[in-house]
């Protein structure tokens, strides 16, 4: 683990590129960049079309209060999706983010309500729980050689169980208004803080993914892990780090959902991971790895919540809402594969 | 590398230890557990779930009654109320342990028939609680009359909004019997008794607080004249209350009627966000179920349907003895 310290700037910039088409967004040929923009603008166009459609269908849709509601309902899934974008770009998957988020919420409750620690300590503790889960996922994938699907499936169950055990199968309530304000306060009038946190997370993730070595290796591992490793990159170390970063976002989502509900609800979380993964895929990130963007994920998450909100506003039956969302995922992934085939 | 592998094993082991420690702590609650090998009669209770506080209250009532009667019980249920298959496996395992009686709450009234018939063939008496199985074997059922409870919610909603206007329902399930009956009882009562009230929307949030809040917000946006929302279980009702808080509304803007109790819902009623809620008697359901099983073991015939009752409670009568006894935090 200690054999290769972080590579020098020169080796980091050139190593992966000698072997395979570089993964980093900066150094790709212009055509590839354009195509990637196109995929995003395709998703963006979908979002705009949806918004126009629902605005025409119902006068209740495009109102300040409803748009603010849509953004707020995007926050939790959006933060999870931003974190898991890293994992999916490496060609991995993280199924533990839904129940993991719940465990982070419960731990935040334990720290703040049960142990009476200061808010900031509880929040950091909740986020650290997420980082620890991500770290263990990373270890299990790299050193035990477990497929990401299995390693994180196991973690999903462990997190669900621990959340129930630790909470004693009862919600943990937060008494302090300051904690609830993390999600529902309004630093910008009319816009809940949870939305600001989502945008801040997306911004940080965007910078990390496009401007740092971590981001470059995320793409490199996803494009061709073996080649990346042979070029002298300690892929195990970076994989662990990537899962840990994803875990941090899981932790943030846990704090945000606890703050929004004013309580940690230990039975929540199942299914959230699939919604987050769907948002990532709709946003143009490839499940095969090597390709993806944070902006796309953000748009994907917005498409999901605009769609669900719009269908609810139109009083479409819950059963049909699921059908429509399913079809949108199909169309998004199909368009993506069509584009790939044309590329090949 | 070796070190790292060791670390990874250690980390996994550490989690396992924490998990086990947790189990040991919770072990006294006796979910799962072995069949009683002592002289005490043993009743295996298979519930619809254990995570909701409602089921925790049923379990509490059952344990208190078991203590009183000197019987041994185990109480288990699947992780979510959609896991019909997992529940059937628990039922199978319970039958295999040859208990003195089985108490069962059916997630699906059809799927359970072969197993319940098998229990009957093995001469294990079966009593039911909350929701029944379409088999002739069970001798009794202790439950809430959900249709009546839904109708009671409708009566109070109608009274509070002046018997006219638009209302909506945030349901918790369009499949399981409590979700369906609490909704139908409400809808039928409105249609029969209050012609000037229109139910403009019914949507389902699976009892998920977050989903239910987003649903309620969409309803409020879509129907500006909406006068009231009925949430059919704890998660749905608390979700509706959260929606009100997030929109800066209060109980004067919109009448909210909930179902069951729990701390968040009781707080909302106390501070006026929620007009009131229907409560069942979960502790009573647990106690009556164990009593019925005990009677069946001793060759007595318990009542076929034991209605454990339901009440409407609001800020005024919440502290009454009769009501306070059936509420749970």
From TrEMBL, chain A:
Membrane topology note: Multi-pass membrane protein
Pfam family, one: BPD_transp_2
Biased composition (Low complexity): 1-16
GO MF term set: transmembrane transporter activity
This protein's record includes keyword Cell membrane: yes
Record has ATP-binding as a keyword: no
GO cellular component: plasma membrane
TM region positions: 42-64, 70-88, 119-137, 149-174, 194-219, 240-259, 271-288, 295-314, 320-338
Key words, A-Z: Cell membrane, Membrane, Transmembrane, Transmembrane helix
Subcellular compartments: Cell membrane
Region (Disordered): 1-27
Stated name of the protein: ABC transporter permease
Annotated source species: Labedella populi
Classification lineage: Bacteria, Bacillati, Actinomycetota, Actinomycetes, Micrococcales
From TrEMBL, chain B:
SUPFAM superfamilies: Periplasmic binding protein-like I (SSF53822)
Record-annotated Periplasmic binding protein domain positions: 43-300
Highest taxon, organism lineage: Bacteria
Gene Ontology MF terms in the entry: carbohydrate binding
Keyword rRNA-binding: no
Keywords, ordered alphabetically: Signal
InterPro entries per UniProt: Peripla_BP_I, SBP_2_dom
PROSITE patterns reported for this sequence: PROKAR_LIPOPROTEIN
Cleavable signal peptide: 1-21
Cellular location(s): Cell envelope
Gene3D superfamilies, per database record: 3.40.50.2300
GO cellular component: cell envelope
PANTHER family recorded: D-ALLOSE-BINDING PERIPLASMIC PROTEIN-RELATED
UniProt similarity note: Belongs to the bacterial solute-binding protein 2 family.
Record-given protein name: BMP family ABC transporter substrate-binding protein
The species this protein was found in: Labedella populi
